[in-house]
Amino acid sequence: MTGALVGVRRDFDIVGLVVLAMMTGLGGGVLRDVLLGVNPPVNIGSWERLLTATLAAALIFWQHDRVLRRERVVMLLDAVGLATFCVTGTIAALSHDITPATAVLLGVLTAVGGGIVRDVLSGRTPVVFSGELYAIPAIVGATLTTVAEAFGAAGIVYVGPALVCLGLRLVSMRRGWSAPGARRR
């Protein structure tokens, strides 16, 4: 939905909304899979995921005024997606023969990559680079997932890293926390 909302704000047509919705929701996983050599990328091969992104774009196309009035709910859902994707992306990366640090990197890319693609396609500075505490919670969640995996964790244990990521994101949104930026002299 966040991708389609960006499209509405940029006066994109229905095709643009669908593309931005797909890139936002699925782009990070596609980038991860391309880097891992998974062919075809899982998200592209899943008609259910493509349909979900298309339905989200259609909802925004016809109901964007109503959705914009409830943007806090959309941001909450986006935070849930960030937490979910950083954990599932890290687990997917760890199923390949890579280092834990690379798995963390790919978990974070899974979580934030779609938003970066969305922002680049829509001509915006990526949100993840603009100071919002977005990538840092994903780094924490992906790192905790990698640690849990190293100790042989499975199943429900992965809810913990997701909740930590989600909590950091929600608290940062509520309190206006941001990542430090470089100071110009």
UniProtKB/TrEMBL annotation:
Keyword check for Transmembrane: yes
Swiss-Prot/TrEMBL keywords: Cell membrane, Membrane, Transmembrane, Transmembrane helix
Domain Glycine transporter, residue spans: 1-62, 76-148
Transmembrane segments: 12-32, 44-62, 74-95, 101-120, 127-144, 150-171
Pfam families recorded: Gly_transporter (PF03458)
Location of this chain's protein in the cell: Cell membrane
UniProt-listed InterPro entries: Gly_transporter (IPR005115)
Principal subcellular localization: membrane
Keyword Membrane found: yes
GO cellular component: plasma membrane
Membrane topology: Multi-pass membrane protein
Entry's family note: Belongs to the UPF0126 family.
Name of the protein described by the UniProt record: Trimeric intracellular cation channel family protein
The organism of origin for this protein: Aeromicrobium piscarium
